[in-house]
Design a protein that fits this description.
Layout lengths: L1 E7 L3 H12 L4 E5 L10 E4 L2 E4 L5 E2 L6 H8 L2 H4 L2 E3 L4 E5 L2 E5 L3 H11 L4 H20 L4 H7 L3 H4 L1 H7 L3 H8 L3 H7 L15 H14 L1 E4 L4 H13 L3 E4 L1 E9 L2 E9 L8 E10 L3 H4 L7 H9 L7 E9 L12 E4 L10 H5 L8 E5 L13 E9 L9 H22 L7 E7 L1 H8 L23 E5 L2 E3 L9 H19 L15 E11 L2 E7 L11 E6 L11 E5 L8 E7 L4 H7 L6 E8 L1
Parallel strand pairs: 1-2, 1-13, 2-10, 7-15, 13-20
Antiparallel strand pairs: 3-4, 5-9, 6-9, 7-8, 11-12, 12-13, 14-17, 14-18, 15-16, 16-17, 19-20, 21-22, 21-26, 22-25, 23-24, 23-26
């Protein structure tokens, strides 16, 4: 079996790289260790609510945004619905409040009215970040042209050069005096990093200018809609997406990649599978690739990345509310709650590592847009703050559980202090820590942004493409241009463009890997008024013990509103039975309705056994 490209990892960079290459006519195999594509661009369901894992708002989607071209090429614009967020954020601190708008002129007007003595610095800031974005759109795409223009960068791309030479804190301190204004401008720095005095002004400029210039947007139904579309686009264009499959080895010969060996993430009775290819895209975290490579490449990569610093992680509380939150005073989509001890820019980083009773956080009320995450009359929200795996990883199970409870209660009480009555409206909440992120995404340290986006590790300092082996490309938050939804997607797109130009492609047979976990429905029967039983074919090498569970995912479910097409279910059939049976409780969900509408022969995929 052979493919042109094997993509290791189904995060946004991997999905975009795979989708773009499949659009170019290449035969693509994408392997994702989780049972759903997307990485941090995913959702999960709890009770009536679809919980958004990673997306608060996506920048841009205007004429200067390269994602527009990308979305048209991959038909995202036709299949994924974006809804614009009303304003960038609402900043709240003990003695200060500001609504930060979109649009360069609107931002300039709001800030100069509040800080008239800082008009020069505000103007310079807006000129710099707008200039960085404009100059980036004009940079040549061809490698030889990039090499030729390097000596002339200060002349033709002065804003890129200026921003690349500073951290956010350094630049702000140089051009702005008012500390509150600096905090206003850096209020949601946690979307990209934890320390303004190490974070690259270049990367911050690209992100901020995208928000200010093009606005912020949410994906209706959650970011899983985008990830699912990109996965289906790969398959529609002749590729294969295998979920629940984990790459274990990148095979090499004569300093070239020749293929990938992978295993099943859930069923350890299945034998490893090796597939040959022309090239590989490593969308997984770069440190994980070391364990997949043979010598001397493994040691070379380890030495290359040893000096690099991982980014921070995040802590999130996913919230389902019984009703709209306007009645308790929540009037904005995104509210940045600044800790009382943050009085200057230098206080931001210590605050991120400080006491939870005072730690800055962001609260998002998705109901302020047509988010499609909750039934009418209910609301989904999220609390998010910078956090670190080191503060969680060595806790005992009891200590971990107690800390999750304490931190959630502390932050929710602070939310209550700002919006009295909001706690009474909570119907459900769930906490995700850096350990959660590491467990589901496999990112070391739970580092959702990959390597820290410092001045030294951004722009030309970021690892990119095939720096290690000619036909092994790195494309993820850990690689160029960096983390975040936009950075990851553009990284995948740029990798695919470079591969199309530089790679040596061979012809591949039309046959594709058959997913042995896809099975047909054999029967459906009513157990009682509240339960039906579905019987499926048993996948090959599916050996389970009594009490085990599986993930049952329906393929092409007939009803999808406010639901996801899978459930974790206990296996109802005994181990020696030649079929698999699952009991489906009646709960009036779309999954329940789809199960009741299934016909014999309809397909599902079964991940497992586990637990």
């Amino acid at each position: 079996m052979k493919y042109n490209t094997i993509v290791i990892g189904g995060g946004l960079a991997g999905l975009v790289a795979g989708a773009t290459l499949s659009k170019f006519g290449k035969k693509v195999l994408l392997l994702e260790q989780h049972h759903k594509p997307g990485g941090c661009a995913t959702t999960f369901k709890r009770d009536d609510f679809i919980m958004e894992v990673g997306l608060h708002e996506m920048d841009g989607l205007d004429d200067l945004d390269s994602k527009v071209t990308l979305f048209k090429l991959l038909e995202v614009d036709k299949n994924v619905q974006f809804t614009q967020v009303p304003e960038l954020y609402h900043l709240v601190s003990k003695n200060h409040e500001l609504v930060f708008p979109y649009g360069t002129e609107q931002v300039k007007k709001v800030l100069t009215n509040k800080y008239p003595e800082e008009e020069k610095g505000i103007t310079r800031y807006l000129k710099l970040i707008s200039g960085v974005r404009l100059e980036m759109s004009k940079l040549p795409k061809k490698k030889w042209k990039k090499i030729l223009i390097t000596p002339f960068m200060p002349l033709f791309y002065p804003n890129i050069v200026e921003a690349s030479g500073h951290s956010v804190g350094e630049w702000f301190d140089k051009h702005i005096s008012n500390e509150q204004l600096k905090l206003d401008l850096a209020a949601h720095l946690g979307y990209w990093g934890d320390n303004p005095y190490t974070m690259s002004m270049f990367y911050f400029s690209m992100a901020q200018s995208g928000f200010i210039g093009g606005g912020g947007h949410f994906i209706k139904g959650g970011s899983q809609k985008l990830s699912d579309h990109l996965a289906s686009f790969i398959e529609k264009n002749g590729g294969t997406v295998l979920l629940g499959k984990k790459a274990s080895k990148i095979n090499t010969e004569n300093n070239l990649v020749t293929g990938v060996t992978f295993v099943d993430s859930f069923n350890h009775d299945l034998d490893p599978v090796t597939v040959n290819c022309d090239n590989v895209v490593a969308n997984c975290a770069i440190p994980l690739v070391c364990d997949m490579l043979e010598e001397p490449h493994a040691s070379t990569l380890e030495q290359k990345i040893a000096p690099l610093e991982n980014a921070c992680s995040l802590y999130c509380i996913y919230l389902g509310f019984k009703s709209d939150l306007t009645s308790v005073g929540v009037n904005h989509y995104s509210t940045c709650m600044m800790g009382d001890d943050v009085k200057s820019l230098k206080d931001m980083h210590p605050n991120n590592q400080g006491d939870w009773s005072n730690r800055s956080f962001i609260f998002v009320d998705y109901d302020k847009v047509d988010a499609g995450l909750a039934p009418a009359g209910k609301t989904v929200g999220a609390v998010c703050t910078v956090d670190y795996l080191k503060d969680w990883k060595d806790l005992s199970p009891d200590e971990y559980k107690a800390k999750k409870k304490m931190t959630a209660e502390t932050l929710l009480q602070r939310l209550e202090d700002r919006f009295p009555g909001i706690k009474e409206k909570i119907e459900y909440y769930e906490v995700a820590t850096p350990k959660t992120i590491e467990r589901f995404t496999l990112n070391p340290d739970g580092a959702v942004y990959g390597y820290a986006q410092t001045a030294q590790q951004s722009a030309s300092g970021r690892l990119r493409d095939n720096f290690l082996i000619r036909n092994l490309y790195f494309s993820s938050a850990w690689a160029f241009p960096g983390g975040g939804f936009t950075g990851a997607m553009l990284g995948g797109f740029l990798s695919a463009l470079n591969m199309k130009e530089d790679e040596k492609w061979t012809s591949c047979p039309d046959n594709k890997i058959e997913d042995e976990r896809i099975v047909s429905l054999l029967g459906r029967k009513e157990i009682d008024a509240n339960t039906i039983e579905l019987s499926f074919e048993k996948p090959a090498s599916f050996n389970h013990q009594s009490g085990k569970h599986s993930i049952l995912e329906l393929i092409d479910p007939k009803v999808t509103e406010l639901d996801l097409p899978y459930r974790w279910l206990k296996i109802a059939s005994p181990p020696d039975e030649p079929i698999l049976r699952f009991s489906i409780p009646a709960d009036n969900s779309s999954f329940d309705k789809s199960c009741n509408l299934m016909n014999v022969g309809d397909k599902a995929i079964i991940f497992g056994p586990m637990g």
